[in-house]
Amino acid sequence: MLQINNLHVELEDEGKPILKGVTLTVPAGEVHAIMGPNGSGKSTTSYVLAGRDGYAVTEGTATLNGRNLLEMEPEARAAAGLFLAFQYPVEIPGVGNMTFLRTAVNAQRKSRGEPELTAGEFLKAIRAKAADLQIDAEMLKRPVNVGFSGGEKKRNEILQMAMLEPTMCILDETDSGLDVDAMRLVADGVNALRSPDRSFLVITHYQRLLDHIRPDVVHIMADGRIVKSGGPELAMEVEQNGYADILAEVADA
Ligand SMILES: Nc1ncnc2c1ncn2[C@@H]1O[C@H](COP(=O)(O)OP(=O)(O)OP(=O)(O)O)[C@@H](O)[C@H]1O
Ligand SMILES: [Mg+2]
Predict the structure, then answer these.
(1) Which residue did the predictor score with more confidence, 74 or 33?
(2) By residue range, what is the domain housing residue 99?
(3) Element (H or E) spanning 229, and its range?
(4) C-alpha dihedral (72, 78, 145, 211), degrees to nearest 10
(5) Among the four residues 15, 107, 233, 243, which has the most C-beta atoms within 10 Å?
(6) Please, what is the angle between helix 119-132 and helix 150-164, to 10°?
(7) What whole-number distance in Å separates Cα of residue 140 and Cα of residue 78?
(8) Ligand 1 centroid to 180 CA: how many Å?
(9) How many domains does one find in the chain?
(10) 4: which residues sit within 8 A by CB, 6+ positions away?
(11) pLDDT of residue 175
């Protein structure tokens, strides 16, 4: 599924290195988590995979199902099945949530050679998914994320994910001020979509989120690299002792 090998990335403007050799494989059907101190490069990794401007890849590769992600336009990456839920969801004034989602869903269907959904078909699908996520019809009509509370934005992101049915979902949950219910919602959203041909990469600071999600593998990122990988017990260790022990252990090795 997702394969990142020795990825080096620097800021285009300043030439400042941010990622210093990230290597990571997420096989089909698995859920992996990335934890790590502030500023270690977690969000940057997700931005580079999604094709955000401003970052220069100086070395390494990233492929999704064998296709070179780094050479593709952001839209093509999305059409190939990549979905990124941002740490800070963007507001799009003037564009209704429903219109936005329908355009996105149909653009992807079109690029995959599938027929577009009619207005009726789309409405039926989104109503069912919105009900599952306890999103009211009013929120579907409002402009995308404008004036949404933090929790509502999260809910909306999970709705986007459920509608787009991506194969590789990257969620950046860092520092997003999720309350217990919103955290549960994100976890339920992920769990509901788990399937043998869909994978997740969940970036988080919260061991509690991982209690609900139960990742197959937990990776620790520090200073632009994955320094340690393990099972869910790694998240417990971070929760109890912080990062100091793990970083010291890696530095000694
Ligand atoms: N556009 C930018 N301009 C300047 N510095 C940047 C830019 N983008 C990233 N950085 C720097 O790159 C480093 C990694 O940032 P990144 O957002 O990936 O960290 P993170 O691991 O997601 O942290 P957090 O846990 O706080 O979300 C930080 O030191 C950050 O300041
Ligand atoms: Mg971040």
Answers:
(1) 33
(2) 2-252
(3) strand 225-230
(4) -110
(5) 243
(6) 130
(7) 22
(8) 26
(9) 1
(10) 22, 23, 24, 25, 45, 49, 60, 61, 62
(11) 53
37: left (phi over 0), alpha (psi -120 to 50) or beta: beta
- Nearest alpha carbon, ligand 1 atom 13: 39
Task: Choose the residue to mutate in 7, 38, 206 for probing ligand 1, maximizing ligand atoms within 8 Å of C-beta.
Answer: 38
Is 194:32 a contact under the CB 8 Å cutoff?
A: no
Dihedrals φ, ψ of 181, to 5°?
-70, -40
What pLDDT score was predicted for residue 88? 63
Binding pocket residue ranges, ligand 1, CB within 6 Å:
11, 18, 36, 38-44, 54, 174-175
Whole-Å CA distances, 156 to 78, 130, 135, 137: 18, 9, 8, 12
E strand or H helix that includes residue 109: helix 97-111
Closest C-alpha to ligand 1, atom 10: 18
Average pLDDT over residues 210-228: 95
Residue 27 CA neighbour count, 13 Å, CB half: 3
| Cα–Cα distance for residue pair 144/104, rounded to 1 Å | 13
User: Which CATH number is 133's domain given?
Assistant: 3.40.50.300
| Residues 6+ positions from 103 with CB-CB distance below 8 Å | none
Residue 87's pLDDT is: 60
Give the number of whichever ligand sits closest to the CA of residue 40: 1
CA 18 to ligand 1: nearest atom? 12
Among all bound ligands, the one having the nearest atom to the CA of 42 is 1
Distance, CA of 241 to CA of 224 (rounded, Å): 21
